[in-house]
Amino acid sequence: MIKPYRLLEERLVLTKSDLAKYPFTSQAAEYIKILDLKIENLANPELNPVLERAEDRIEEALVSNPPEVSYRIRSDDIEVPSFPVAVMMVAATRNDFVKRRYALAEARRVYDLLKLEDEGTILDVANSFKWRIREGEKKDATRNYEFALYFIDFLDNSKNFHEKEWKLVNRVLRNGWVYLAKQEVARLLQEEVHKHVEKKLEADVRSMLPENVIERVDRLTRTYAVKVGKVQFEELPRSAVNAAFPPCIKQLYDSAAAGRHLSHVGRFALTSFLLRVGVPPDKVIDLFRSSADFNERMTRYQVEHISGARGSRTSYIPPKCDTLRTHGVCPSMDDICKNVSHPLAYYRRKLRTPKTEATAD
């Protein structure tokens, strides 16, 4: 069933080992075709090693913090196909949180590997996404720029970054080309991979999978519920009641726990709300650890500043509902939202609802 890799060897820019590292590339997709790995073939016991590695990838993503999938030096004929199989299995869970966490884990894996690669390999991976990218030529007094990326490709992948250094106005730009260091290109490729995997996970493939694969998916789902169910809602102190969170805070919390990017207003609203309802600063800091750009020193400073422990010693409160709506932070309004003007007012009113649970575990 498994056809030899040498049929593709002469046509590939990336090596076979590279495909094991970067199994999302177009060259890896060609390799999978050569392997003749079809969904119906997954019932074959010969493919159990591929299924086991795929299951390992998913479990790593669910239990590691921040979420990440390791790169293992093993048979490339197992490592490469385990990626599309894992994607199918995650899609079959039909669990949005598991999907988001897995996509982030694979993307973080790519970033860690690319930082150590030579420029040629990075160009090959970038070209797989049809990036307009070339080796850099520009230097300034303090740094070299290994790459130049066309500004549209730069904007497509940096638009969710909120740090000032990622704003186009703060970049070296010449004739439409943005000059970047190797680590910066690796970070942008991480974002590209994140989007790529998330799109793949939208497919509804459960009905197409053999029974033995469905059994693995269901076992993973049960394990997720038992072992890492609290990852989505990190253990909060008993004084904080997540069942009383307004829709905006609930969405921000889910996104932060899954490592998704939050706008500046969103991060401020979430942090100030959690601090106000009794969550210790260390717990708030831990919530942001899944973020790809997590910096503990900076996050601690920001959280402690909002709490009033630093700077002006002012303890900040979340923005009003009108402000959150203006900045696109309000996802939807329920019946309570329509009668309050502030997230904390929602929280207090919801606490008075008899059916509101008293814990955040």
**Number of E strands:** 4
What is the molecular shape? globular
Number of domains: 3
**Main sheet summary:** 4 strands, antiparallel
Order of adjacent strands in the largest pleated sheet? 1-2-4-3
Describe this structure in words.
The protein is mainly alpha-helical. The chain folds into 3 domains: 6-112 and 200-229, no CATH class; 118-195, no CATH class; 233-351, no CATH class. Helix content is 52%, strand content 4%. The chain is built from 17 helices and 4 strands. The chain has helices at 6-9, 16-21, 26-35, 48-63, 76-93, 96-114, 119-128, 151-158, 182-200, 211-227, 229-232, 247-257, 264-276, 281-287, 296-307, 321-326, 343-351; strands at residues 133-135, 147-150, 173-174, 177-180. Strands 1-2-4-3 form a 4-stranded antiparallel beta sheet. The longest helix has 19 residues, at 96-114. It is globular. The termini are far apart. Residues 1-12, 228-238 and 357-361 have low confidence and may be disordered.
Entry summary:
The chain has 361 residues and is mainly α.
What topology emerges from the helices and strands here?
Blueprint: H1 6-9, H2 16-21, H3 26-35, H4 48-63, H5 76-93, H6 96-114, H7 119-128, E1 133-135, E2 147-150, H8 151-158, E3 173-174, E4 177-180, H9 182-200, H10 211-227, H11 229-232, H12 247-257, H13 264-276, H14 281-287, H15 296-307, H16 321-326, H17 343-351
Antiparallel strand pairs: 1-2, 2-4, 3-4
Helix pairs in contact: 4-5, 4-6, 4-10, 5-6, 5-10, 6-9, 7-9, 14-15
